[in-house]
Amino acid sequence: MIGNMNQAVLLIIVANVLVSMKGFNDYAFLNKYKFQVGSILSGEKVRMLTSGFLHVDWIHLGFNMYALYLFGGIVAGMLSTPYFLIIYFGSLLTGSLYSLMFHKKEPYYSAVGASGAVSGIIYSSILLYPDMSLYLLFIPIPIPGYIFGIGYLLYSIYGMKKQVGNIGHAAHLGGLMGGFGLTLLLFPSLFFVNKLMVVLLAIPILLLLIFGDKLKKI
To answer: What residue intervals traverse the membrane (predicted)?
Structure first.
């Protein structure tokens, strides 16, 4: 199956694995390139990109790369490799921007992970192929793609509220907003072809934009 994987998806997975492995064994490297609010506000904007290639451990890395493997080929195949890259890196950056906005008063807040980019790819693939079904590890029955996407969203909201681990949960949410918006911008006919799915996916995004600040107060 790897032989049939889109080359851009494969290269991004390899880059994530190599950079994350470096971070596992070199804390100074991890500390230099992770997302950290104070450092970014002081001018180290590159962290908003580099943090997306670092992970806290093999489980964190594996989950994100497995999700990218499942959904990345759909986006690259149905749009194109350049559009896939635009959505991937655009979602990574919108994830970082949302994290920065959400944690702007916490200068020592830090996080790592490709979650923002992967969230954007997940939302993009659901928009493009709303009828997809997935066979996930340890689950013997097919699961609709949009169910996986909603579950990923709920997990992200819970993680952001509880600030679980060193994982960029807020980036999940910013990333899916980016993936949603960029996909519609690049493929506007989806407004008419998959109108119901566009509306369904837009609802939680609108709720997050309106009530996101209250997550810290719950």
So the answer is: 6-24, 58-77, 108-129, 135-155, 167-187, 193-212
Burial of 202: CB neighbours in 10 Å, binned 0-12, 13-18, 19+: middle
Residue 129: how many CB atoms within 10 A of its CB? 17
Question: What distance in Å separates the CA atoms of residue 12 and residue 210, rounded to the nearest whole number?
Answer: 33
Q: For residue 47, give the 3-state DSSP assignment.
A: helix
- For every one of its 218 residues, what pLDDT tens digit does the chain have, with 9 covering 90 and above? 444 678 999 999 999 999 999 999 999 999 999 999 999 999 999 999 999 999 989 988 998 898 899 889 899 988 889 999 999 999 999 999 998 988 888 999 888 989 899 999 998 998 888 878 777 666 677 778 777 777 767 766 666 666 555 565 677 788 989 999 999 999 999 888 888 888 888 887 787 777 666 555 44
Pairing of strands 143-144, 35-36: unpaired
CA distance 164 to 144: 27
Domain 2-216 has CATH 1.10.260.40: no
Q: Degrees (nearest 5) of the Cα angle 188, 190, 194? A: 165
Q: What is the pTM of this model?
A: 0.87
* Cα within 13 Å of Cα(106), Cβ side: 12
Q: Name the amino acid, one letter, at 26.
A: D
Beta-bridge partner residues of 36: 110
